[in-house]
Design a protein that fits this description.
Elements lengths: L7 H15 L9 E6 L2 E10 L4 E5 L2 E5 L25
Antiparallel strand pairs: 1-2, 2-3, 3-4
Amino acid sequence: MANVMAGDAEAAGAIAGMQETYGRPRYEEGQWVRGECYGKKFSGRVLEDFGDGICVEIDGGWLGVKPEHIHEPSPTGLPMDCLLADPTDC
């Protein structure tokens, strides 16, 4: 038997309505993404989506980029292509 409580359907409907109205984070934690910032390509896993900025874990560190710097999310496990040399540029 599923662990369902009274009101779960209503809560799910409210969440769906809020997501439709306000949107939802573009990227989920752990999602593999790739992109380009100031002519430098990067790829890695999303640590957090702040809405106006995305924190991406790259080999040996992390990178803060704007959502427009990220291309369409890549399939999980795609090898890193290039790393951004100076993350403070973004």
